[in-house]
Hints:
The protein is α+β, with helices and mostly antiparallel strands. It has helices at about 5-10, 20-25, 145-150, 165-170, 205-210, 290-295, 320-325, 335-345, 360-380, 410-425, and strands at about 25-30, 45, 50-55, 60-65, 80, 85, 95, 100-105, 120, 125, 130-135, 155-165, 215-220, 225-235, 240-245, 250-255, 260-270, 275-285, 400-405.
Amino acid sequence: MISAEENKLLTQTGPKTPCGELLRRYWQPVALSEELPQGGAPLKVTILGEELVLFRDDQGRPGLLGLHCSHRGTDLSYGRIEDGGLRCLYHGWLYDVSGCVLEQPGEPGGGANRNDIRHRAHPCREAGGVVFTYMGSGEPPLLPNYEFLTVPESQRTVTKIFYRCNYLQGNEGNIDPVHLSFLHQYINESQVVQKRIVPGTGATDNALLGKDIAPIIEVEVMDYGLRIYTIRGAGSDRSYLRITNFIMPNLSAFGGSTVGEGYAVHWHVPVDDTSHWKYVFMFSREKALSEELRKKHRAEINPEFRLNREGANRYQQDRHSMRTETFTGMGWNFQAHDAFATESQGRIQDRSAEHHVSSDKAIVAARKLLLNAIEDVKQGRIPRHRINDAKTNRFPHLMVISEVIPRSVHWKDYAKKLVDERQSAS
Length: 426
């Protein structure tokens, strides 16, 4: 377990908090690009406990400003998009994406002192169907060239889901290999869309995960965070190898429907300390995604990006289906299962009351990386995986594997061979 003080360090993300300062040292998703169409209304958003307005100006540039006008505090999300910026409805002050006051039309000469005012503004970038922002001090780092952000649009998809809990417990669910043998188990595979047969065997990953429920788990510290190895038995002479990743500071990469040709990513962005958005990416480096897969990616999510199954309706649990269909009785959508598991821990999980076991080693290691990074920021050092050099902004070694391999081959040697092949080809 960790102390109550360490739990506060890891979960409090507002302005001037230690973890908030860490998260602000990286680019963070703030909205889906589709939420900000050209000519569309500004969006009132809250991220890391700060109220902001996101807009796209008449040149197509995204901007993120403090929500309240610097003049008299009126809400800018009601403003007009015109004349190169966002205009407040109260007195017509016009702001560009960098926070400069372009006009004070009610003042002589358009505002003699307008250049002395700089409204709070955060730089924005778009990639992979997402608007990113940098909310830290100083020059922003490079936006990481992750594959899921750089492949053609036809080969990727992204959505987001609102979770009523702290960002950390959401992300910790991604790096907990044992829960796959329980929480997400399908009892009846006949109703599963696009069943995946694991290379090296005739079995599905669902069957293999259910067969060996006490896997070997090892972690390796990487420049980007953690590589997590999970090894399960798959017969007398074979092993089922899964490699997933914790990526600093608040995302994870794992299998999903495109594993082998790509992978899935969950990026957990705090709204405040008790809720967050999970940005859900999926991509293929080889081919366009099917329409069926795109629809599956947004199953049971309403137009406001909330799950239909939620705590208020007990995630629509059907206890009869627990005997014949799924382990949880909460349908076939992994996202609803995750919401139940993480939201039911409470808005902020009390980690000081945990009792760790050997299978928690990835979670323990990730917390240590975060605590070390918080200390790095406090001491003025560059935290892990903040990308400042274009030469290091490539990640062929960020890999996800879900394969059955001969037991005679050591899983770490097998992974190294695949990484070497990827790096040689890139």
